[in-house]
Amino acid sequence: MRALGAALALAATLLVVVLPRWARRRLVDEAAARGVTVTVDAVRVSLQGVRFVGLNATADALAGASASAPELDVELRGLTPSRLVLRGAELALTGPPGALGAALAR
Q1: Cβ–Cβ under 8 Å, residues 28 and 10
Q2: pLDDT at 95
Q3: In whole angstroms, what separates CA 99 from the centre of its chain?
Q4: CA–CA gap between residue 54 and residue 33 (Å, rounded)
Q5: What is d(CA 18, CA 9) in angstroms, rounded to the nearest whole number?
Q6: CB 51 within 8 A of CB 67
Q7: What is the pLDDT of residue 74?
Q8: What is the pTM (predicted TM-score) of this model?
Q9: Is the dihedral angle over the CA atoms 22, 68, 77, 6 positive or is it negative?
Q10: In percent, how much of the chain has pLDDT > 90?
Q11: Would you list the DSSP string of 32-52?
Q12: 78 close to 65: Cβ distance less than 8 angstroms
């Protein structure tokens, strides 16, 4: 019985502590590899996938552009994303139109 309790405690720790940290790090690192800086306020893990809450992003190659979204749901098959749902996303572009156009043309 103690072994079962220990196994359940370990599983709960993984679900509540380890997996959210891993998921956040993976998202931030994958975005950085593509020249995008991402911050995330919170990460929630469920049996269906991962929910990122309070996302903000900027692209190194596109000065004056930023994006935000209150939620990004990532459905998983194993540890592989199978579906993404982005809710309430906003894109803000600031600066002279010519500069933004030049950056987008690159």
Answers
A1: no
A2: 78
A3: 28
A4: 21
A5: 13
A6: no
A7: 94
A8: 0.77
A9: positive
A10: 49
A11: HTTTEEEEEEEEEE-SSEEEE
A12: no
